[in-house]
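Researcher: I'm preparing a figure for a lab meeting and need a structural model of a single chain. I don't have an experimental structure, so a prediction will have to do for now. The sequence is pasted below. Please return the structure as tokens so I can convert it later.
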Amino acid sequence: MNNLEHLEKGTAHIIVEIIEYALDAIVSKTIVKKTTGNITATSVATGEEMSELESPFDTYVQIIDGIAKIRVNDNIVILRKGEGMIIPAHSRHSFQADEQFKMLTTVIKSGYEE
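Model: Understood. Here is the structure written out token by token.
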């Protein structure tokens, strides 16, 4: 599964196996990318941190393995495997891995209203 360029449409897959951990690295794989939005799987090794960013769209984050520390503006949220949250549009946010984790992020751009 990990060697495929794209996931085959109409075929079942095991979501946590779409992406592997890499030592001292952050690895991302785009699952779906359209002008109206995207879904990305990301693995984050222990000790790594994803830089702060801000999106003009709401972003749904779901942890599929491990535990993630997410900073949204000035609040810290801990998400565990199976938990998710919506990061509001225009919020500063970053991710930190006190232990390794995998996540799915979903951004839908169409029909967006502030």
